[in-house]
Design brief:
heterodimer; A: alpha/beta; Aspartate Aminotransferase, domain 1; Aspartate Aminotransferase, domain 2; three-stranded antiparallel sheet; 12 helices; 14 strands; B: 500 residues; alpha/beta; seven-stranded mixed sheet; 12 strands; 10% strand; disordered C terminus
C-alpha cells in the first residue's frame, strides 16, 4: 500500500506537518496489554466497588431487573456498530425501533410526539426550558425545589449564558408536594415555563393538573420532569403538561455509575418545530412500501447551524433501544404489575420507617432518622452489606436528619426489616 | 462489477403494535414477598391511570424475532467498511462490552459511598491521565455526554475565563468548513457566530483571521485536521493571532484519529478541545449514541471545569465540590461512565505505540483510497490529507449524477456510503474516512466499487440515479415524510402498505 501511494515509509505520510507541531517522543502510556489482562484489570476495579450489597439508593437512578432480552438485542452488531441512520435504505432496523420508541413514549406520557432521545434526564431539562422560551418568546423560568437537585444545577449552567433567568419555588413543609400558592404568587406574564417533577425528588406524586392550570393562566408552558419511568406504569399520564422531559434509566439501563442513560422530550404536535433532537417519521419508498427516515431535520444543527433548536447530534440511540426492548418485554400488563410491585415494596418499607412527608409516594420516600446522624445509621447498615438511604442535607439543609429511601421490585423483605431495625431509636440507658 | 455482496432474503416484520393481541406476555415477575396494596388507596384514585392504550402485548419469541429481523435491515461496521467521513467508524472491540457489564461497574450507583466506588473512580482517573498524555493538555473533564456537549462545555469554560478577566466578549469565529454543531454550540452559549471563509487551499486564511480578530472575539473553533482531512499547517500562527488579542483557540477533536501519537494539540497552541470517545476511542456508535465528549484544557481554564472534580486525598479518590469558579454541572453525576470504561479498555489494549500505529494506518488507508480514486473523481483540494479524503462529484454531475446518487449506488455494491455533501465548502462532496480498521482487501473492494460506479455513470447513469436496487427498501421519500409528518403509530394512521 505504501508503494501504491508512492511512499517508502509510513513516516512520509506526516512529512508535510510543520516540524514544530510533531510529537518528538513516544506517548507516556504503557505498552498495550492482552484481552485477558484487560478483563483482569477491570475485574479488579469492579471488586473495589460495592458488590453483593443490598441498596436503598434511588434519587434518580433505580435498581430494576434487566430482562436478558435487552442485552441480547443491543449486542447484535447491526444495532451496536451502526451510526445515525442518515442512509434510510440500509438503516430501516434502527429507524423502525426509534419509531416504536417514539410511539411508546407518547403512549406512556399522554403526549402527541416524542423525540428519538436526549443525552439523559438532566440535560433534557435545559433543552425543555429553552424550547419553552422559544415557544413563548419569554425568558423567565420557575423551577420547583423538588426537582432533582443535580438537574437544577445543569439547568443553572445552561441558563447562565442562555439569557434565561431561573427562579425556584418551594414545597409544602408537611406534605412534600410543590407549593402551589408560592407558584401562583411568583408566576407572571414573563414566565416561559414552570418546571415540576413527578414523582418529585422526594418520591411524592405531584398535582400536575393544578400546576398546569396555574401555568396556563399566565400563558406559560408546564414542563413535567420524571426520573422514575416505571411510575408511568401506574400514574395518571401528565397529559396536562406541554412538555414532558425525563430519564429512562429505569427501563433496563444499568445504573453504571451515572451513565450512559437516555433522556426524552415529548410534547404536543403544535410545538414540534421548536423541539430539539432527532425525529423519525413514516413514509414510503419508491416501490410503495412502508419505510421510515429521519425527518424535520430543518430544526437541527447540521442544516440550521447557529439557528438550530439545539446543538445535539449524537444522542443515546442504543440506550433508547434498551428501553424499547424493555417496554416490549413488559408490555401493557407487565409495566402495570411492575409498578404495583414497586409501590407495594416501598409501602411495606414505610411501615418500618416512618415517612417524613404526608404526600402520596411511589417507590421512594424521605425518612427522618429520629435525631441520629444519617451517617451513623448508614455505617451500621454497611456492616451488614446494606447501602442505606441518601442523606439529603447536602441539597436541603432543612432536612438535616433525613434520608431518601427507595425500594424496587428487587428489594427484599428481610433487608427492609433490617433497615427498619437500624432506624429504631437507640434505647436510653436507665 | 459487484464483488462484495449478493442479495439474500430478508424477513418481513410489522410493528410491535400490529403484532399485539390482548393477554400476550413476554415477562414473569416473582411473587411479591410483601403484602399487595391497592394503588388507589395509597396514591388516590385520581392519580392512578387507566391501561396504557396501544402499548404492546407480545410474547418472548415474537420479541426476539421482531428485533432480530429488524437488525438484519441495518448495515453496520461488523458487516464491512463504513466510510462516513468525520465519524471514525472503526471496529468496536467486544472485550470492551464485556468489561462494561461487570457487576461491580454496571450496577454501581452514582451515590454509593466513595469508599465503595474507588474502582470506578480509579478508572475515570486513569482515563483522564491517558487523555491528558494523548492531547498534551493539562486537565480533563469526562462529564460531557457527546461531542456537541463537549463543545458547549468548552465554550462555557472560555466564557467563564473571559468574564473573570472582565469581558465575556461577543463573537465566536467558525470556519465555513466546520461541523454544524460548532455554530449551534456557540449560539447556545450566548455568542454571535461569525463564519470565516476558507482560503483556496481549504484552510483558515491567516490574513483574513488577522483582519477580523478584535477585542470582541472570544474564540475561534477550529477542527484540526479540518473537515477536508487537511492539517492546518498554520495552527501555531492561528493561535498566536488569537492569543495576541486575548481570544482563545478551541479545537474540535472529531478528527483526533489522525493525530494520536503524532502531534498533540496542547503543544500547538490549543487552549481547550473535546474528544469523541465514540470516534477516536472505539466505543460503539450504537445507531446514534451513546457517545462521550471529554474536554481537555490548559491550566488557565482548569479552575472553571464542571463539578465535581476527582481528587486524590491521601490514598483514596474523592470528589471535590469546593470549586467556586466552576461553571457548574453540565450533566447529572459524572459522565457516561460505561463509555469511559470502554474507552479505557481500548487505550489499555493499544498502549502508546499501538495508538500511534492506529493513527499511521488510518492515515495510510485514506491516502491509499485517494491514490486509487483520484483518476476517477475530482479532488478539489490538493493539499496532503490525513485520515480522510474529500472528493467532489464535479465530473459526474456533468452527466447528471450527484454525490447522493453515487452514495446510494454504493449500497448495491455492499458498502455504507461516505458522508454526503459535507463539508459545505466542497460542492457535491464525497467525504471518505476508512479508519485503521480496514485491510487492503476491503479497501480495494471499496475503491473498485467507486471506480465501477464512475464507469456506470458514463454508460448507464440511470442505474445510479435510481439506486439502490438490491435493498429491501428502495429509495425513501424523505420529502413526503417532512411534508406530512407521521411520528408515531396509531391504529388508523397507517396509509402505507404494512411490511407483512
Amino acid at each position: 500500500m505504501l508503494a501504491a501511494c508512492g511512499l517508502e515509509s509510513a513516516e512520509e505520510l506526516f512529512a508535510h506537518l510543520p516540524d514544530d507541531v510533531r510529537l518528538k517522543q513516544p506517548l507516556a502510556l504503557a505498552p498495550g496489554i492482552s484481552e485477558y489482562e484487560i478483563v483482569d484489570y477491570f475485574q479488579a476495579r469492579a471488586t473495589e466497588n460495592a458488590s453483593q450489597y443490598a441498596s436503598f439508593l434511588g434519587a434518580g437512578v433505580y435498581a430494576h431487573y434487566r430482562p436478558v432480552m435487552v442485552d441480547t438485542v443491543v449486542s447484535r452488531g447491526e444495532f451496536l456498530t451502526s451510526y445515525t441512520p442518515y442512509q434510510a435504505e440500509i438503516s430501516q432496523g434502527t429507524l423502525t425501533t426509534i419509531f416504536e420508541f417514539q410511539t411508546m413514549i407518547c403512549q406512556l406520557t399522554g403526549m402527541e410526539v416524542a423525540n428519538a432521545s436526549m443525552y439523559d434526564g438532566s440535560t433534557a431539562v435545559p433543552e425543555a426550558a429553552l424550547m419553552a422560551a422559544r415557544v413563548t418568546g419569554r425568558n423567565r423560568v420557575l423551577v420547583a425545589r423538588t426537582v432533582h437537585p443535580e438537574y437544577r444545577e445543569v439547568l443553572g449552567t445552561y441558563a447562565r449564558y442562555g439569557r434565561m433567568s431561573i427562579e425556584e419555588f418551594g414545597y409544602v413543609a408537611d406534605s412534600g408536594v410543590l407549593d402551589l400558592e408560592e407558584l401562583a404568587r411568583g408566576i407572571d406574564g414573563q414566565t416561559a415555563a414552570v418546571i415540576i417533577q413527578s414523582p418529585n425528588f422526594f418520591g411524592i406524586v405531584e398535582n400536575v393538573k393544578a400546576a398546569a392550570a396555574i401555568a396556563h393562566k399566565h400563558g406559560a408552558l408546564l414542563v413535567m420532569i420524571f426520573t422514575e419511568a416505571v411510575s408511568l406504569g401506574i400514574l395518571e399520564p401528565p397529559a396536562d403538561a406541554d412538555i414532558v422531559a425525563g430519564e429512562l434509566q429505569s427501563f433496563a439501563i444499568s445504573p453504571s455509575y451515572g451513565g450512559p442513560y437516555a433522556g426524552i422530550i415529548a410534547t404536543k404536535e403544535k410545538f414540534i418545530r421548536q423541539m430539539p433532537g432527532r425525529l423519525v417519521g413514516e413514509t414510503l419508498d419508491s416501490r410503495g412500501n412502508r419505510a421510515f427516515c429521519l425527518t424535520l431535520a430543518t430544526r437541527e444543527q447540521h442544516i440550521r447551524r447557529e439557528k438550530a433548536t439545539s446543538n445535539i447530534c449524537t444522542n443515546q440511540a442504543l440506550i433508547a433501544l434498551m428501553a424499547t426492548v424493555f417496554m416490549s418485554v413488559y408490555g401493557k400488563e407487565g409495566l402495570r404489575e411492575l409498578a404495583e410491585q414497586n409501590l407495594a415494596k416501598a409501602h411495606y418499607l414505610s411501615g418500618k420507617v416512618k415517612p417524613r412527608f404526608s404526600g402520596p409516594f411511589f417507590n421512594e420516600f424521605v425518612a427522618a432518622t429520629n435525631g441520629r446522624a444519617p451517617d451513623e445509621i448508614n455505617r451500621a447498615l454497611l456492616k451488614r452489606k446494606i447501602i442505606g438511604g441518601l442523606p439529603l442535607a447536602r441539597w436541603y439543609p432543612e432536612l438535616e436528619n433525613c434520608v431518601l429511601l427507595c425500594a424496587t421490585e428487587m428489594t427484599r423483605r428481610e433487608h427492609m426489616d433490617e433497615v427498619g431495625q437500624a432506624f429504631l431509636p437507640v434505647p436510653q440507658a436507665a | 462489477m459487484i464483488k462484495k455482496v449478493r442479495p439474500h432474503i430478508t424477513q418481513n416484520e410489522s410493528l410491535l403494535f400490529e403484532r399485539s393481541s390482548p393477554g400476550k406476555k413476554g415477562y414473569q415477575l416473582p411473587a411479591l414477598d410483601v403484602p399487595d396494596i391497592d394503588p388507589a388507596a395509597v396514591l388516590g384514585a385520581a392519580n392512578v391511570r387507566a391501561e396504557i392504550e396501544g402499548f404492546p402485548e407480545v410474547s418472548e419469541v415474537e420479541i426476539i424475532r421482531h428485533f432480530t429481523r429488524l437488525s438484519t435491515w441495518n448495515y453496520a461496521i461488523d458487516l464491512g467498511l463504513y466510510p462516513l467521513g468525520s465519524c471514525t467508524m472503526k471496529y468496536n472491540p467486544r472485550v470492551n462490552e464485556l468489561v462494561a457489564r461487570l457487576d461491580g461497574l454496571a450496577w454501581a450507583h452514582p451515590y454509593q459511598p466513595e469508599s465503595l466506588a474507588q474502582g470506578a473512580m480509579e478508572i475515570m482517573a486513569r482515563l483522564e491521565a491517558a487523555l491528558a498524555d494523548i492531547t498534551g493538555m493539562d486537565a480533563i473533564t469526562l462529564q460531557p455526554a457527546a461531542g456537541a456537549h463537549g463543545e458547549l462545555t468548552g465554550i462555557l469554560l472560555i466564557r467563564a475565563l473571559l468574564e473573570k478577566r472582565g469581558n465575556p466578549r461577543k463573537r465566536v469565529l467558525i470556519p465555513d468548513s466546520a461541523h454544524g454543531t460548532n455554530p449551534a454550540t456557540a449560539a447556545i452559549a450566548g455568542y454571535a457566530v461569525e463564519n470565516i471563509r476558507s482560503n483556496d487551499r481549504g484552510m483558515v486564511d491567516l490574513a483574513e483571521l488577522e483582519r477580523i480578530v478584535d477585542k470582541d472575539v472570544a474564540a475561534l473553533m477550529v477542527t484540526n485536521p479540518n473537515t477536508l482531512g487537511v492539517f492546518e499547517g498554520n495552527i501555531r500562527s492561528i493561535a498566536d493571532i488569537l492569543h495576541k488579542k486575548g481570544a482563545l483557540l478551541y479545537m474540535d477533536g472529531a478528527n483526533m484519529n489522525a493525530l494520536v501519537g503524532i502531534a498533540r494539540p496542547g503543544e500547538f497552541g490549543v487552549d481547550v478541545m473535546h474528544l469523541n470517545l465514540h470516534k477516536t476511542f472505539s466505543t460503539p456508535h450504537g445507531g446514534g449514541g451513546p457517545g462521550g465528549g471529554p474536554v481537555a484544557v490548559k491550566k488557565i481554564l482548569e479552575p472553571f471545569l464542571p463539578l465535581p472534580r476527582l481528587k486524590r486525598l491521601r490514598n483514596r479518590w474523592t470528589f471535590d465540590y469546593n470549586r467556586p469558579r466552576s461553571i457548574g454541572r453540565v450533566r447529572a453525576y459524572y459522565g457516561n461512565f460505561g463509555v469511559i470504561v470502554r474507552a479505557l479498555a481500548y487505550v489499555l489494549a493499544h498502549g502508546g505505540n499501538g495508538l500511534r500505529n492506529a493513527t499511521v494506518d488510518a492515515v495510510l488507508n485514506a491516502n491509499y483510497i485517494r491514490k486509487k480514486l483520484e483518476p476517477f473523481y475530482d479532488l478539489p483540494y490538493k493539499a496532503p490529507n490525513m485520515h480522510e479524503v474529500v472528493f467532489s462529484d464535479e465530473r459526474q454531475a456533468k452527466l447528471g449524477v450527484r454525490t447522493g446518487d453515487i452514495a446510494k449506488r454504493l449500497i448495491d455494491y455492499g458498502f455504507h456510503p461516505y458522508t454526503v455533501s459535507f463539508p459545505l465548502i466542497v460542492h457535491g462532496a464525497l467525504m471518505i474516512e476508512p479508519t485503521e480498521t480496514e485491510g487492503k482487501r476491503e479497501l480495494d473492494l471499496f475503491a473498485d466499487a467507486l471506480i465501477s460506479i464512475a464507469r456506470e455513470i458514463e454508460t448507464d447513469p440511470e442505474i445510479v440515479r435510481t439506486a439502490p436496487h438490491s435493498t429491501r427498501t428502495s429509495r425513501v421519500d424523505e420529502v413526503a415524510a417532512a411534508r406530512r409528518p407521521v411520528l408515531r403509530w396509531k391504529p388508523d394512521n397507517s396509509s402505507a402498505k404494512a411490511a407483512d
